[in-house]
Amino acid sequence: MQLSEQEIIRREKLDALRKLGINPYPANLFPVNHTSKQVKNDYVEGKKVIVAGRLMSVRIQGKASFAELQDSEGRIQLYINRDEICTGEDKTKYNEVFKKLLDLGDFIGVAGKLFTTQVGEKSVRVTDFTVLSKTLRPLPLPKKDADGNVYDGFTDAELRYRMRYVDLVVNPEVKDVFVKRTKLFAAMRNFFNDKGYFEVETPILQPIAGGAAARPFVTHHNSLDIPLYMRIANELYLKRLIVGGFDGVYEFSKNFRNEGMDRTHNPEFTAMEIYVAYKDYNWMMEFTENLLEHCATAVNGTTQATFGEHTVDFKAPYARVTMTDAIKQFTGFDITGKTEEEIFEAAKGMGIEVDDTMGKGKLIDEIFGEKCEGNFIQPTFITDYPKEMSPLCKEHRDNPELTERFELMVCGKEIANAYSELNDPIDQRQRFEAQLKLSERGDDEAGQFIDNDFLRALEYGMPPTSGLGIGMDRLIMFLTNNQSIQEVLFFPQMRPEKKQVELDDEAKALLEIIKTHNVAPLAQIKEEAKLSNKKWDKTLKTLTGHGIAKVVKTDDALEIHMV
């Protein structure tokens, strides 16, 4: 393992601590009785406290020093006086351990008394400290200039997401997002529980990928020797429970979809789905707007939330627009009564990328997504979707071409989807069969299986039911003003980390030459490198073999390109 100079020094300090008889990773409990927040909120001059956390700054001033300790709730200033922690003649604990062997980022525990400095800072006058954990890598701590401007911060998004444990330490504001995320889940759970609905769990590994139109992750069960699919939705299992006699069930579920990744999609995400018997989608619209008003207030203390340049108000009621009217408003095209061929040609005429695998529902979905979706900023219910778009949804009571479905749009994105649930088992079988035909045409997001056990459940009878699904990750994005889903997931999915390549001096020199050109003729780079033929071949092979540079053949000559 290649270590940096700082990492080598820290390991030397680790050895020095052990030689002094200090265990840098003690096993015994440390009796913390106050957090930094409690110290400040319940401050009493002279009060004895025991606190613990990371050492985040140190100002050594001879026989006395000031330091900052960071715990889970903030920071507190420490005052360390040599003669107060080393009451005898042996001053090793201050002169050696504190001044020389501790580093920023180390965990320590301190005992002391509260006092206020001359400048009014509530602090702990340390009487003793304990090393709790020695850090072997330096933290990328941001710095501030005299005017308070932050520079050299830990801001690279890929590093932050990959090393969230560092991000949370050095960028404390990141933690606020996840505190609000927890508040959102708690608020929603309390809202449901207060109404008597029952929280349940359903399988993540499923024999059939159902409940949504999405490409699943596939695995294999060795003992049963069958394929299994990671859950793309929990809808069909929750409706089985309504068949079984529950009047209202909900679940916060981890779902997995083997699809693209972007700023609003992660292959692993959290959804909430709730199903309530004897209700319809009109009831569910009112329920949803009251739920989100409650949640926004619980998370932010107000129904309003800032998202980018927009101020969104989650206060009920929300506007209602049919999908047909939305498409007509923003494209001038009326989908009512149109055939698949007519919609296909209309979509092409709008400049939308279409292909022969797309059925009527997918075409309408593409038109709405491309031409309409982004226009709805304030919470708006888009209602009455064409039947082809909603294979699990009940036919509209007034128009057999439509279904009783709504999606809630906010800032051009869907955050909720709800139905009057289809409970006619014969109609449901026909819808499944239609989806299967689309799959056979090449639509890899259409339903690829018929869930015969779910159909059997419906044949035992399911009462009129309305269901709602909410993308929890996307909702918290709106409530915390984050444009990227990676900001609201502790550990978003990342591409494999590139291994660092150790280059010799010739390879480093050649790489610098290539960097200055980015793209250049091979002969020119070879001339500038001034390497022997043998060294040139070896060095170039090192760079191309590690994928750092590549040789490209053009009509005129060979070129070197930076990768």
From TrEMBL:
Annotated Mg(2+) 1 binding sites: E407, E414
Reported cofactor(s): Mg(2+)
Domain Aminoacyl-transfer RNA synthetases class-II family profile, first and last residues per copy: 181-496
Localization of this protein: Cytoplasm
Keyword tags: Aminoacyl-tRNA synthetase, ATP-binding, Cytoplasm, Ligase, Magnesium, Metal-binding, Nucleotide-binding, Protein biosynthesis
Database matches in Gene3D superfamilies: Bira Bifunctional Protein, Domain 2, Nucleic acid-binding proteins
Cofactor note: Binds 3 Mg(2+) ions per subunit.
GO molecular function, one term: lysine-tRNA ligase activity
Residues that coordinate or bind Mg(2+) 2: E414
EC number: 6.1.1.6
UniProt catalytic activity: tRNA(Lys) + L-lysine + ATP = L-lysyl-tRNA(Lys) + AMP + diphosphate
HAMAP family: Lys_tRNA_synth_class2
Description of how the protein assembles with itself and partners: Homodimer.
Family membership: Belongs to the class-II aminoacyl-tRNA synthetase family.
UniProt xrefs under PANTHER family: LYSINE--TRNA LIGASE, CHLOROPLASTIC_MITOCHONDRIAL, LYSYL-TRNA SYNTHETASE
Protein's UniProt name: Lysine--tRNA ligase
UniProt organism field: Flavobacterium litorale
